[in-house]
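User: I'm writing a tutorial on reading structure tokens. Could you give me a worked example: one chain, its sequence, then its tokens, then a sentence or two explaining what the tokens reveal?
Assistant: Sure. Here is the example chain.
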Amino acid sequence: MKIDLSYSPEVVFRPPEYARLKKNGMVGVDMHYHTNHSDSHTRVRDALKLAKFKGIGLSITDHNQISGFFEAKRIDDSVLCIPGTEVSAWDGPHILLYFFSGGDMEECYKKEIENKKSSSPYLATKLGTEDIVEIAQDYNCLTIAAHPFGYLLFNKGLGKCIEREYLHPKIISDFSGLEVICGGMTRKLNLKAAGLAYKNKLCMTGGTDGHLLRDLGNVLTCSYAEDTEDFLEELIHRRNYIVGQEKSLIEKGVMATAIMPKYFRYTAPSLRIHYSQNAPRLKHFGEKYLSRKK
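And here are its predicted structure tokens:
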């Protein structure tokens, strides 16, 4: 299934063809992948080995963490690894930051993010969406809204939070782009994300949001590039395309079961975070409902 809109880049829903990408001189990068540096059990070493076998790159976007990238660079610098992290805002959205250099990412993390992590380190930080995009403006990086209409009952996507009036629609103009194929989303919600990106003339990315080794590379962001700088520049100028497919319901269930133990030790703080995030939303919903009844 292909989005037929008069705007570039292309978004294609089918399995990536690794050999074809290589033959055409293109590079495909899974731009949203987690390792055991956050809530996955996948070792960085194993992810790099599989990426090399498939001839692809990856961005290790662990939750509120950057150490996976630096481990990857120490192990095998020959695999294209885009410096990245997924920062969870206290008001809902998950925000992917992609940096042109590991040095910039490390400076940003140590100065702005590390001391804002909560007692449940993979969940919401103490930074709001506006805080994160404002911080990003001081660094050479791309600000991408992950799974814009995710995730299930939780408000972890920018588009979803705007729809529910938790965030002002103007906030989208502060983003570089949107993730339009997320392996953890449904086709309907990915298409909705692509439509939102087209409407706002934002760049597009895609990634598996993978937590299992077998997820890696099932969604790729593709362009003609040789290094991180070239690759991110291609995204900025929308000279790329996204190809991949979503996980099946069974695959999503397997992944959820696999990562659950990572949160057990943080059960109490996780519950507090979910309560603090959702109490204002319930209040907002109640006030909105009552105003309509009048």
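What the tokens reveal: The first strand starts at residue 10 and ends at 12. Residues 267-293 form the longest helix (27 residues).
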